């Protein structure tokens, strides 16, 4: 069972909370084995940091980036900042489409 501490009076006596460094908003996991209860701080994961909708957006953006890499739509590797700046100043662009002339 996972529990989020919401108030100072939740769950544990003040001295125990202080010694363990437990604060409001911390998540605790309770494990029961026979008559023994173990309380383990639960560290947030990436899934805990985002709502389901936000996670879906992040996953879609990651998938799009990985697809670009698979298809070779990436910038060239530069070993130095000077190389990158020289490329930018020269106007080199990789993987860009040529504009088609408009027909009238």
Task: Write up this protein.
With 104 residues, the protein is α+β, with helices and mostly antiparallel strands. Helices cover 38% and strands 16% of the residues. A hairpin with a 2-residue loop joins strand 2 (27-33) and strand 3. The protein is elongated and about 75 Å long. The mean pLDDT is 79.
Mean pLDDT: 79
User: For the terminal residues, how far apart are their CA atoms?
Assistant: 69 Å
Classify the oligomer: single chain
Outline, from the CA principal axes? Answer: elongated
Helix-strand pattern, N to C? EHEEHHH
Largest sheet: 3 strands, antiparallel
Low-pLDDT runs of 5+ residues are: none
Estimated share of beta-strand residues: 15-25%
Number of helices: 4
Helix content: 25-40%
Structural category is alpha+beta
Query: In total, how many domains does the architecture comprise?
Result: 2
Radius of gyration: 26 Å
Strands of the biggest beta sheet: in what spatial order?
A: 1-2-3
Q: Kindly state the number of beta strands.
A: 3
Can I get a quick summary?
Helix content is 38%, strand content 16%. With 104 residues, the protein is an alpha+beta fold. The radius of gyration is 26 Å and the shape is elongated.
Task: Pick out its properties.
alpha+beta, 3-stranded antiparallel β-sheet, 104 residues, 38% helix, 3 strands, 2 domains
